[in-house]
Amino acid sequence: MRMFRNDYSEGAAPRIMDALVATNDEQCVGYTEGDPHCERARRLILDVCGLDEGEADVQFCVGGTSANVIGVTGMLRDWEGVICTRDAHINVHETGAVAACGRTVLPTDDADGFLSPEGAERVYAFQTSCGRHMTRPAAVYVTNATELGGVWDTARLDAICDWAHERGLRVFLDGARLASALTSEGNDVTLSHIAHTVDAFYLGGTKNGMLFGEAMVIRDERLREAFPFLVKERGGLVAKGRLLGVQFEAAFERGEGDAEAPYWSMARHANRMAADLRAGLVGLGFEPYGSSPSNQQFFVVSPAQQAAFEQAVGAETFYVLDDGRKVVRFVTSWATSRGDVDDLLEFAATIA
Amino acid sequence: MRMFRNDYSEGAAPRIMDALVATNDEQCVGYTEGDPHCERARRLILDVCGLDEGEADVQFCVGGTSANVIGVTGMLRDWEGVICTRDAHINVHETGAVAACGRTVLPTDDADGFLSPEGAERVYAFQTSCGRHMTRPAAVYVTNATELGGVWDTARLDAICDWAHERGLRVFLDGARLASALTSEGNDVTLSHIAHTVDAFYLGGTKNGMLFGEAMVIRDERLREAFPFLVKERGGLVAKGRLLGVQFEAAFERGEGDAEAPYWSMARHANRMAADLRAGLVGLGFEPYGSSPSNQQFFVVSPAQQAAFEQAVGAETFYVLDDGRKVVRFVTSWATSRGDVDDLLEFAATIA
Amino acid sequence: MRMFRNDYSEGAAPRIMDALVATNDEQCVGYTEGDPHCERARRLILDVCGLDEGEADVQFCVGGTSANVIGVTGMLRDWEGVICTRDAHINVHETGAVAACGRTVLPTDDADGFLSPEGAERVYAFQTSCGRHMTRPAAVYVTNATELGGVWDTARLDAICDWAHERGLRVFLDGARLASALTSEGNDVTLSHIAHTVDAFYLGGTKNGMLFGEAMVIRDERLREAFPFLVKERGGLVAKGRLLGVQFEAAFERGEGDAEAPYWSMARHANRMAADLRAGLVGLGFEPYGSSPSNQQFFVVSPAQQAAFEQAVGAETFYVLDDGRKVVRFVTSWATSRGDVDDLLEFAATIA
Amino acid sequence: MRMFRNDYSEGAAPRIMDALVATNDEQCVGYTEGDPHCERARRLILDVCGLDEGEADVQFCVGGTSANVIGVTGMLRDWEGVICTRDAHINVHETGAVAACGRTVLPTDDADGFLSPEGAERVYAFQTSCGRHMTRPAAVYVTNATELGGVWDTARLDAICDWAHERGLRVFLDGARLASALTSEGNDVTLSHIAHTVDAFYLGGTKNGMLFGEAMVIRDERLREAFPFLVKERGGLVAKGRLLGVQFEAAFERGEGDAEAPYWSMARHANRMAADLRAGLVGLGFEPYGSSPSNQQFFVVSPAQQAAFEQAVGAETFYVLDDGRKVVRFVTSWATSRGDVDDLLEFAATIA
């Protein structure tokens, strides 16, 4: 049975892999600078963001942790910190990478994956209550889709951005699964709106059909100056920069007969599979945990069911509830087929 | 009226100042190495701790933040973190100094200033639930007296130390106000017990009558090797090392007719003044916040009272409660007299 | 004309690319842990190193800067430094990545790319002449092939390793171009000898036919404990760990009719092309700079020739000599053909 | 016999100590903020620098390593480095403190203690020759008096400052012994000129009669914003901030009948003692090493003489020459008397 463990279990989606193979023998200068693929990918991305040349930089790096660390620490001076939710990837799943670069993560008590102005304000008010004895907040970090599969709507996103900008804080958006968010059912946020609202964000590749790589769009001046150096200093620069250019070019190039560029159609497919999976599991009586319209689906199950799902499809456990039940996650991707979902539902029926 | 703002508002206690003046013209080699005062202070401290030569190192540094940063980061490897309460000084009042050295602070939800095995276990269990993707806890940080004036008893201290040691974690005790804790009413912990139980701790000087300086007692091998270098690298080494030796020598030298060494009698006096202050304020109907037997006293007051106390005696505000009332702090020291307390109580009566 | 700018100008060598394509649809767990390709690659590498299971760890990371930073900083405590030549990659071409992790690079005045015991001793003697006021050397960093194309012989390598080990220093070998070194003409060092002599080293993939990735062999206990966490914390962990496993498996798997595994034959080919290129240029009267038997060739040329070579084949300039002449570099790879070399020589004849 | 080991062998000069004793019982708020002594010291220092309120900040910190690290790292972004001479204190005697904060020290080959535009240009040209792959120089660090006792003249200082400013680099001047430099014979640099030329510098206290402490004058905007937070984060903030205010106030307050403020007269005295010592030793046939008009005097002696001087007056050895002779240092201070110098010369005569 196909695993539902993650959206990075396979190699690359066919369109991406084909582009890598097709360009394999070309010679390019390295490091994402000056090769035609990176340059074209940059233009395609600026375009889809509705940004003019010069309004923003598009930069590439090797993976999500790199992108987060470079983005966040490039926005912060030594004594400054970043506000995020308690479940934020940078707070819990990156081995203290932000602290390893000397900066402080300041988590709120927001428990649903969305950073709220109220939660952020509590942290901000506290951290500015004792002058220089405290890390000074200077940025906020949000994820879309969130770590819990949630998708920001425009009003919610604008609210936190307004809150931040009113206080002089920068906004960094982790877009490891941004494609899934923006193609999810009910989404009302446009990429262009994000690009003109947050100060920097990235379009994730690793979790949307590429071998690896993230493309960061940067309007913030401080980060624009920092990125080219930080990406090297923090180990995120790829010698064969072509790999990033070729993949993002293929992802954002709309081919003959494409209703939309592969970057979006791959994510839309994953969301559809996730919706089918969710509907199926709910139909079988399983209890969803939270409400995710994106490609991660969380369910509350018994310990026995958790063990069975882990064994069968590699589902990971995210939380253990106070009553002993467990929250497991199923993830779909470009590689998930309707048949794979059916197989999972068939199995689930046996343990429902 | 005398301020009750802090225990570091004045210069040095007379015995300490006298010793500095008396030795001022002596020539000493620098950096706390090899001068007779540091050497003698080391022996006096080992002695009062019941430690043999070689069982532990005694090292000096310039202040509390230095001591905490050196102690904590000297116990941790790059990817490791320290568990502490949410109110721990290293978590909230040192401008991210631990993160500035690349390490992560892992706060629990303990709200009373005491790190509990339950709180620590929750953090530990979470932080070890996802392998190397998470900062690995490797030490715990406790303070005695706590940031809220609390004093550890032996059972409580042993419980957290046992919990830590069973998991291979080191224990660091911030003793900025250890003298106050150990001379507080009802205290049952001996210095020797601490010295033989925790892996490193320090005897605070700044907040107990010295101009500045802390003396760290280190049994942990990793920190023993690290301290001499870290204290220089982190900027905590004092060129005129004599200043630390002379002060700690004077503090731990029991003179003719002394019932105990000045280090203890100064703290005992401060505690007595704090107890009088507490009793007086309670008698006037003020509501204590928590139960501190040491030289910091916290009271819940109205905003108007807070403003009055801040104006009159420099009392600092620590929390704002949900109902708008404020928690203010009064601190006594070797320099506080019974008359100072009476003055404060007289004033308090006018706003009670 | 084919560029001779670098050995990472193309994509992957055919055998590597084929393996990536062939395994593309397999599902693997991520992060190089537990997938069959990484496991098999590990066993192949231990085997070719003559190491038993348990004698050493084989770990993967994303690129050379990551490998160097993780390897070097994982060997050093906060106050320790690494001795290397002045031209060492970590000293000049990694944007201060070692310092960014809080450690100090201690360059010698060795000018030929080889770290000498004499040069290292001068640095060591100086750095240990003032106790804790100086960064303490704790490791040495060598590269094979060196930044100038040189190849270590056994006597030379043993001399620096003995020097280091006698003083308690660890040895880290940067093997970004180790394959080229070990297959170069006249080389007398075996991989097994390296594996049993240095404390950690890596087998470079990026510069030897892979898309990216390096495989580190670690005997040093301190680094063995550190690597799994540091690779995540420093941003060097690849989500699709399969990519590293599949590539190194393909590189070290000796197929039907292979005289040796592709990892070696690719490098041997590059060396052969470099030797032809060198012989040809020398025949045309060009002056070689130093004596490199590996896939990087350095020549002293006039400014006009430099401009012509840069324009024609992307040759990079490494030094400007006092007389104004320039040292340019030509690099060959698995992708360089005999025809490409002929084209270059034909062009060179026109500007000789 | 009085030691000539260092200028921080004694406690504080009488005027300083008297001020500490006289103000000992006053209550002050802490951390150098808002107490009248720090405020008055700030005004006195601005005044003596010829700076208006608002043109520069005056900030205090605990010691020289703190001052250097805060000053240098507060001028640099993460990927930037500081150019200095190879003997610069930050390069060799601070245990890698700058690297510990993630920044890179870029030493020139200047061997006489003075950073030259030529030496700096060589480093700058190299470090900017390979884009973001190299640490970008963004500041220079000079010391006055230098580590070898040299004193900058106006032309020399202006030359390096002009060189730096033309390239957009900031200038930081380590003034641990600035008082000695500015009161040395032949000095033509005014404090006001320094204050208006470099971007930040400090007036050393530790080595000029105080117990400890340095006062930094900052015109650079980046450092002005950074200092208040960095001084806490890096452990350089003194809880009893009064100590710094009181000492600098006493040092810069010109009393009845003072020809100049004690800060200058103490240094002038030390210089006079050093000149007498130098003349005497030269008269005895000892060979000076370099030419220092300040309070550090270097001489080339035989190993036997070195041992004798070390034993007799604590002279430290700075270099071992190729012929085996040694360079020893004698240091004078406010505490050195003419009789002390005579004693030393009398002793020297016995081993000349």
TrEMBL record, chains A, B, C, D:
Keywords for this protein: Pyridoxal phosphate
Keyword Membrane: no
Classification via InterPro entries: ArAA_b-elim_lyase/Thr_aldolase, PyrdxlP-dep_Trfase, PyrdxlP-dep_Trfase_major, PyrdxlP-dep_Trfase_small
Magnesium recorded as keyword: no
GO molecular function: lyase activity
One Pfam family per UniProt: Beta_elim_lyase
Aromatic amino acid beta-eliminating lyase/threonine aldolase domain sequence ranges: 14-255
One BP term from GO: amino acid metabolic process
Cofactor names: pyridoxal 5'-phosphate
SUPFAM superfamilies: PLP-dependent transferases
Tree of life domain: Bacteria
Family affiliation: Belongs to the threonine aldolase family.
Record protein name field: L-threonine aldolase
